[in-house]
Structure prediction request, 263 residues.
Amino acid sequence: MSEDEAFYEALGGGRFASTPATAGPWSPGLQHGGPVSGLIGRAFERHDPVPGTRVARVTVEILRPVPVAVLDVSVRVVRPGKRIALLEGEITHEGSPVVRASAWRIMAAPPHLDPVAHAPAPPPLPDTTPPFGPWPGVHVDGYLSAMEWRLVDGAFGRSGPGTTWARARVPLVAGEADTPLVRALTLADSASGVGSQLDFSKWLVINTDLTVALHRDPVGEWLCMAASLDAAPGGSALCQATLADPSGEVGRALQTLLVDEQS
Prediction:
């Protein structure tokens, strides 16, 4: 992947051209949810910003598969406020909504607040990670290759729960530096892949949404994600993940998932 590549190219007016780097593991023509989540998170941060506030929670609703194509992004404020504001966003393709999202933007806590932390420190960043290797039916040349992975506990395809360090090899938007929120959102939608104990050759596992809540902004390029998935017959699946930087935990991610037999 070339150094000047990105997940998206800005076309102006809220339009973005999706590059092949956005493609998910199931098809070169359909996007992974990570870049899409990062794109709407970027829009939330840039919409009528209020000094001294931060986007603390983002929920992304995936309405249908997102094509690797030109997308339009829009955001509006539905509950304005100096300390707390609720934002809504939408991504469309050729006029049809493919993603809807919401975000809480809240005032940053005072700097003299004593920090409260309960989670243990994340595991050390591994020096290397196993290659993808042969992975029948999986498209690895898009998002999977655009991210750099350092698995803590095994190889790709290993049954979860799982823990990985990861960072993007390319920026979200060409010519821009990613923000901490964008970095977290771009990774977090991979939680169900990292933490699943379901055999993807037998089961279709698709998340309908992603919620990321950050009690502080992550620092640095590398993020650690520890994920696990629970599923029940007659129910559905739920994936939970913790997100951390080298200093400790920064937040949580949650996904609701459809589980069905592979056709």
Q: What stands out?
A: The chain has a mean pLDDT of 93. Residues 236 and 258 are 6 Å apart (CA to CA).
